[in-house]
């Protein structure tokens, strides 16, 4: 606040067990707008918000509040139907990076490289880091992940292990003095790489990358077909998320054909306990048969490297432990993919690139 003498900054904080970042950000924007007029306007607004029922997934609620000079304002608060998309703002990524650069970053992360994002604003860093990690679904980043790295911890970027780190642009001069090697440094403010390995554009299989790029170039058009509003952020996020899910389905959607038997002889009702992740049972996944089932040479070459990552190992291990328990979007799309194959191909042939864009049935308006 303004005034003389020592003053502490005012902080408004929303605490919730739900990660609805986009919804909460909208509320805080409204709080900030009212605080700029008068602190007395914040409490009535927040009371109205707290008394309103929290929107269910896929639903929108309306909150009315009086604002001097504007009259009664109607504020709509909505939640996406898919909980994975609640805390993701993919559009922040697309507004910060060109599509070609974004796919290069994505490819680097698939090989578990070291990536540093820099930006002038904390919000940009945080949103873009969250979004780029969300693009990896159904895989999970297994290494160091610090969306906003404090300057006092800058030495962490010298570690030889994989990481995703967000850094304020003010720390760049110090970063240049550090002995870092084989690191991709991404400038979100100017859509450019400050450091790179120069092979980022050749990591992904060419046809698969081109198909993904084509769908993402049409993301707004496809979102309009799917949603009711031209700039519906939920529809846009759903289109982007689905495009990357389809990409992974084309790449590894046949994994379940090579998982081995669903039951082991030593399992019985009296011993239902699953092995813990720290002490897993021997893998029943047929790695080589899985890779060789792919007809595309470029995809086979990529899988040879990708299958050595901890991301891929964690993906297979989770499915070995939980077996039939996974029913997420990826599993649904992978099963649809397998069902679309002729019966003779079910036991080991992954038809490469069956049309990433054409198969996105969810995009057609119901």
Automatic annotation (TrEMBL):
It holds the Pfam family dDENN. Gene3D superfamilies: 3.30.450.200, 3.40.50.11500. SMART domains: dDENN, DENN. Residues 266-285 are annotated as: Disordered. Keywords: Guanine-nucleotide releasing factor. Residues 1-326 form the UDENN domain. The keyword Membrane does not apply. This is DENN domain-containing protein 2A. The gene is DENND2A_1.
């Amino acid at each position: 606040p303004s005034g003389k003498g020592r003053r502490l900054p005012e902080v408004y904080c929303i605490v919730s067990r739900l990660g609805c970042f986009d919804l909460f950000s909208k509320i805080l924007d409204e709080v900030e707008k009212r605080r700029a007029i008068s602190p007395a306007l914040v409490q009535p607004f927040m009371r109205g918000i707290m008394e309103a029922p929290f929107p269910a997934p896929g639903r929108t609620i309306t909150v009315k509040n009086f604002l001097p000079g504007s009259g009664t304002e109607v504020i709509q608060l909505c939640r996406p139907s898919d909980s994975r998309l609640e805390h993701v703002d993919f559009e922040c990524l697309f507004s910060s990076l060109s599509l070609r650069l974004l796919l290069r970053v994505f490819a680097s992360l698939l090989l578990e490289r070291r990536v540093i994002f820099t930006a002038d604003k904390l919000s940009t860093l945080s949103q873009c880091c969250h979004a780029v990690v969300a693009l990896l679904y159904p895989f999970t980043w297994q290494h160091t992940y610090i969306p906003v790295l404090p300057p006092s911890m800058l030495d962490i970027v010298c570690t030889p292990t994989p990481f995703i780190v967000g850094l304020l642009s003010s720390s760049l001069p110090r970063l240049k003095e550090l002995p870092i090697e084989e690191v991709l440094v991404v400038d979100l403010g100017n859509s450019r790489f400050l450091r790179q390995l120069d092979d980022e554009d050749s990591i992904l299989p060419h046809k698969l990358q081109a198909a993904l790029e084509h769908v993402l170039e049409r993301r707004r058009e496809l979102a309009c077909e799917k949603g009711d509003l031209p700039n519906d952020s939920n529809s846009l996020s759903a289109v982007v998320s689905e495009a990357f899910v389809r990409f992974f389905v084309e790449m590894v959607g046949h994994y379940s054909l090579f998982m081995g038997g669903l039951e082991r002889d030593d399992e019985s009702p009296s011993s239902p306990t699953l092995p813990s992740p720290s002490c897993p049972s021997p893998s029943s996944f047929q790695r080589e048969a899985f890779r060789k089932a792919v007809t595309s040479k470029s995809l086979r070459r990529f899988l040879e490297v990708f299958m050595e990552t901890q991301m891929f190992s964690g993906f297979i291990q989770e499915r070995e432990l939980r077996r039939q328990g996974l029913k997420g979007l990826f599993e649904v799309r992978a099963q649809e993919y397998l069902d679309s194959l002729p019966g003779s191909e079910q036991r080991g042939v992954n038809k490469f690139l069956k049309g990433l864009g054409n198969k996105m049935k969810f995009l057609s308006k119901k």
